[in-house]
What we know:
Layout: H1 2-26, H2 28-32, E1 36-43, E2 51-58, E3 60-61, E4 70-82, E5 85-89, H3 92-100, H4 103-114, E6 124-129, H5 155-159, H6 161-171, E7 177-182, H7 206-222, E8 229-231, H8 249-266, E9 273-280, H9 284-292, H10 295-298, E10 301-307, H11 319-328, E11 333-338, H12 352-367, E12 370-377, E13 380-381, E14 397-399, E15 406-408, H13 410-419, E16 427-433, E17 438-444, E18 449-456, E19 462-468, E20 471-477, E21 481-488
Parallel strand pairs: 4-19, 5-6, 5-12, 6-7, 7-8, 8-9, 9-10, 10-11, 11-12, 13-14
Antiparallel strand pairs: 1-2, 1-21, 3-20, 4-16, 14-15, 16-17, 17-18, 18-21, 19-20
Helix pairs in contact: 3-6, 4-6, 7-8, 8-9, 9-11, 11-12, 12-13
Keywords: Glycosidase, Hydrolase, Signal
InterPro entries: GH (IPR017853), GH30_C (IPR033452), Glyco_hydro_30 (IPR001139), Glyco_hydro_30_TIM-barrel (IPR033453), Glyco_hydro_b (IPR013780)
Family: Belongs to the glycosyl hydrolase 30 family.
Amino acid sequence: MKKLLLGLLLIPMLLIAQQKARYLSENAEFLIKGKNVMVYTSAENTDFRLTKTDSYLQFTDLKQPLETQICVFVNPNKTFQSFLGIGGAITDASAEVFAKLSMESQQEFLQAYYDKEKGIGYSLIRTNVHSCDFSSESYTYVEEGDAALKSFSIEHDKKFRIPLIKKAMATAGGKITLFVSPWSPPAFMKDNENMLHGGKLLAEFYQSWANYYVKFISTYQKEGIPILGLTIQNEPMAKQTWESCIYTAEEERDFLKKYLGPTLKNTGLGDKKIIAWDHNRDLISQRASTILDDPEANKYVWGIGFHWYESWSGGDSMFENVGKVQEMYPDKNLLFTEGCVERFDYSKLQLWANGERYGKSMINDFNNGTVGWTDWNVLLDENGGPNHVGNFCFAPIHGDTKTGKLIYTPSYFYIGHFSKFIDKGAKRISSVASRSQLLTTSFLNPEGKVITVVMNQSNDAIKYYLCIGTKATEVSILPHAIQTLVYQFND
Length: 491
């Protein structure tokens, strides 16, 4: 009887949803008619940096585009994944550089990233569980050999990292999501007796290491820092000169289903989102299949995390691999957990191609089902550090510790074309370019605004038509530029 009543109650809701979908489909042109399109542009060899370059474009009739007309076709009625957010990692390095800035530069930095109006509205934070390469030294939260974790303490993080995380959260008005990642267990837990140079977690310390995650999450939350979830291991197939730990797919699966998953559940942290893999797109399919095809492991996994460094081999970025995982496991979330431009060179701080790398990756990753996108360090110094093993890299913003000034790179503005405009809970919608010179993705915000991002990879200025149904507006985009088009779809 209860099932029957529930079914009867659901029928009107389904009918209403179907009617709304039919209404939107039949009235798409009406809903955009007379609406202005605002255009924000960043372009190479110009002063345009997230600059409003048009606000009076309107849709007119274009019933059948010609082959000679370049178009971006947007269909708001075809929806896909929900948007979680965009952000970057607050590492020890970022926090240490922040602490060296003047109060004025600190406030400028916080607004630049975490204020939606004055900045680009970051809504995701990643942080490291004890040290990583972007720390000034290797350290853990326990004394060497303390498998019982009786000496566990995060006092180290209270000096720089936790204060910056709290300031970022406050600037964002509390509307921010944080997840955490470990680079290596303590040395005594590993077969190489070293936090660096890979090595593996010894079987006798599986439970102790699972308890370590619980200690970290619980302690951070007591500090007033809510944590959405965690990745199991940063780059589990990379033997690095810095903190690293190797897990085969089977080892990561077994650690998750026998230790980490049950331990989080049994300690009241079963709501934390567990993210597997956390490494490059190249092996993502094999790792996802091994873990998610196991029912016991699968039940603990919220999503699959990935990085963009597969191009180290000399090949191209494997964007399509992300889409393949989305096809195989549509009930799991895909999260870009790390990316940065490697091999720091001060003379290339304003290299436009670095920003374009971000734009290309973000568009392709979102179009392949990604729900959120997390850059690596939010802030580094004028040398691309600090980094205790010399692995210096670029960040979207660098703080010159000699002058106290912030240096904004093209990457900051490319990321901003997404993070400033797409709201949490937005739905990705169909967005297709008719020519390869243009890349595009689109989202429908909860309040009805459409956010269409268009990137021109070519050396030529291009005129294109933004098309919805048989309505279109003509837009001009400069060479090597990125645009965000904002327009209302419904009331």
